[in-house]
Structure formats: C-alpha cells, structure tokens
Write a structure and sequence with these properties.
Blueprint (H helix, E strand, L loop, with lengths): L1 E8 L3 H31 L6 H6 L1 H7 L8 H23 L19 E4 L3 E4 L2 E4 L8 E4 L9 E9 L2 E9 L11 E5 L4 E6 L4 E5 L3 H17 L6 H35 L4 E5 L3 H4 L9 H13 L4 H13 L3 E5 L23 E3 L5 E3 H16 L3 H13 L10 H6 L1
Parallel strand pairs: 8-11, 11-12
Antiparallel strand pairs: 1-7, 2-6, 3-4, 4-5, 6-7, 8-9, 9-10, 13-14
Length: about 425
Amino acid sequence: MKLTQKIRIFPDSEQEEILWNISEKCRLLYNFALTERIDSWKNKGEYVSYFKQQNNLPKIKEKYPEYKWVYSKVLQYILRTLDADYRSFFALLKKGNREAKPPKYKGKKYFTTMVYNQSGFKFKDGNVFLSHKYNKTPLKFKISNKFKFGKVYQVSVFKKEGKFFICVTYDRQVKDYVDNKKYQAFDLGVIKHTAVNLNAKFIELKNSRPDKYWQKKIQSIQSRRDHCKKGSRKYNILNNNLKFMKKKSANQLKDFQHKLSKKIIDNTKANTIIVGDLSIKDMSKKKKGKSNHKGTRGLNRAIQNTGTLGRFVRFLTYKAELIGKRVIEINERDTSKKCCVCGKKHDMPLYKRVIICDCGNEIDRDKNSTINIMSRFLSQNAKWTGYQQFVGNLRKTGLPIQAMYSYEALCES
C-alpha cells in the first residue's frame, strides 16, 4: 500500500533561492507547453500529446541552458501534470459538467510543486537530498527520526502559506483482508453518521462542526477587511486574522475526522464496512426548477468547503486497509427515499427527518438509509445467509420487514 507523509522543511536563504529558481523554470515550462497546445489547436486543429512535448525537452535544454538546472524527472512531471489537467477537463465535459474550465497559466508568484518521481532523491543519515544543477549548494533537509519509510517512490516539494513542505510517497505493508462474515453499513451525513450491523444494532456518531463556530467570526472579519483599502496596514492585519481563522477551522475538522475514522475502524468487529458512493458535487448543486439558493449555499458550506464527507471516506479507506479491513462503496441512490419495508419511494426533502409509509413503517430517515444500504450490498453480492440474518434481526426490533429478494435473484446478482 502506498502512503504519503507530509513533512515541513526549513531551507536557508541559499536553498530557498534555489527552490524559487527551479520553481520558476517549471512554471515557465508549464506555461510554454500550455501555449503550444492552445496554438496548435487554434491554428492547425491538432492535438499536442504529452509524449511529443516530452521528446522536445532535450531541444529546449539546448536552446535554453538554464533548464538544465532542473532534474529531468521534474520537468517530465510538469508536462505530465499539464496532460492530466487536460484529461480531467475533458472528462468533466464528457460527463456534462458545463462549469469545467481548461488549464490556466501560472502567475509569477506561483510556486510550482516539484516532483521527484522514482529518482533524483536520496535518504541518508536522517536527511533527504534533492538533485539540482543551479549551483553547488546541496538541497539537503533534515528528516525527524520518528518518520520511518520503506521503499520510497516519490518526493515532492511545495510551498503553502509561506512554509515549505515535502511529501514522501512510500510503501507500507498491510494485513491481508479476510471476510469474517460481519458487515457494518454507514449512512454518512453532515450532522451525524448512522451505522447498522447484521444484528440490527444502530450506532449514531455526531459530527463535530468547528466551521459553524468560526463562521460568524470569519464573516465579521471578512466584512471589515473588505471595507478597508487593499494593501493598507489595517487590511493586512485583518487579512492575516482571516487566514488564521480559516486555517484553524480546517485543521480542527481534519483532526476530528482522523480521530473518528480511527475510532470506527478500531472498534468495529466487522472486517467489511459499506458506505454510500457519494457524489459530492451533485449534492450541493442547485436543483432544476427550484430557487432555494439559501439551502444550496448551506449544503455547499457543509459538504464542499469543509470536506466533511468526501475526505472522511478516504480516511476510513486507508485506515481500514492498514489493519486488514475493507471499505466498500456502493451506489446509494434513493436509499433515503425508499421505504426499507415495502420499497415505496417517497419525496424526502432534507427537513423531513422521519419517513412515514403507508405500510406502517415509521423510522428515522438515516436509519432507513442504512438498512437500504446494507440490504443493497448483501443482495448485490449474493450474501444470502447474511441477508436472512439481517432481516430476521430487523423483525425482532419491531420493524414489519419483508425479504425483498428471492434466493434465485440473489444468486444471479
């Protein structure tokens, strides 16, 4: 399993000068390659591939010797990044996302992330060495002894909020996954996460929302800042305070998600955890024919700005793999709308927290969703014994649940 460790580094003035000069050459290469693609398409109607631009790198180094300062793998990865940006743009267009935008030019103040892929780096005596030919000053940075890496695949250098970091991608041994016939399904939400196991026992985990605490403070500071002259002393003070608050809010939420995902993985006896395959972008999109901008804005803040759901699933996934467990994502479409007893579909806006069906079923919408997620997983994977056990335990809780799938249908799915 590949993991990435983020480590802060402290370059001196000479090393910082080297990093900025190398970054500038990478930025220019990105912009020149982007110009080549745009001009070729506009003038000739031809697409410029990554391999063509990569093969032109030796000619560029001959014409502009300063590009020899940069390690060859770093330059190749810059072109690969541009190619990936275009592929992502076209993929979004193909899915019908008209808000997708093509890659843009990088400004002069932009610090380009430098990626040393497979080579160009060396770890020795608690230090990491990065290759360059700008001058004879070595790019040598101290690494704490608490970080232990196996086989290292990649080292990248980037700058964020005035601080320099490196990311080390390395190999980590994990335990083999064994299906112990115990499953736990989760319905992930902004306010709480609801889970159910085969014994029909429900667990509700409340979400921490530090962004709500900081939201009014951030809005107040932002309003005061926007009424100041840009670049003035007061503007800069308020702007720094605003950045600090946003960073504090994001760090608190990320810390909570790490702790909660670790607690879930360590305390569940199930080796298989099922979650819904969430479409984060679609959840906060404005619905056709509806003008509820306030509701859309609230969802956008809760889901996209804070990373409450998408990032939490990633944390669960890699923490589970480390100890031999598995997180499986399945399609959760209409799981909150369909009655878990009879399957009738209801109109369930977010303010409706209880589903009331004609069949007599009255249950919390999140619990209803977890039951549907668990049933869908068991049916799709032909877990007939587990499905019978799950339905039987649901009946004991008082739900008039019925088996919605026959044995033949389960075997064929």
